[in-house]
Amino acid sequence: MDHLRRGRRDSGNPQAGGLGWRLHARCRHTVEHLFFPPDNERHGAQVRREAAAKEICADCPVIIDCRHDASTQPELVGVWGALTERDRSSRRLRATAAAS
Fold this sequence. Notes:
This protein has one domain. By secondary structure, the protein is mainly α. It contains three helices and no strands.
């Protein structure tokens, strides 16, 4: 998937804090359109697409690494680590509120 081939440093080791985890991602060999919204996507289609993407993520061996990468970049679009844009935004807001 193109979103897994970004030009960032990659250690090759999913536990080393680099981006090598991407080599072990279940989504690596799936269709990208499940993880990223097309233009003018209708709500019902969005719900179905996100559910399908989250299902792929559910038993991914690197889900934690993916979530961490998406939250530290932050990734503004798509499903990452079984979290949608709304999910990640909600987590950031809760974290900010808890810190204050």
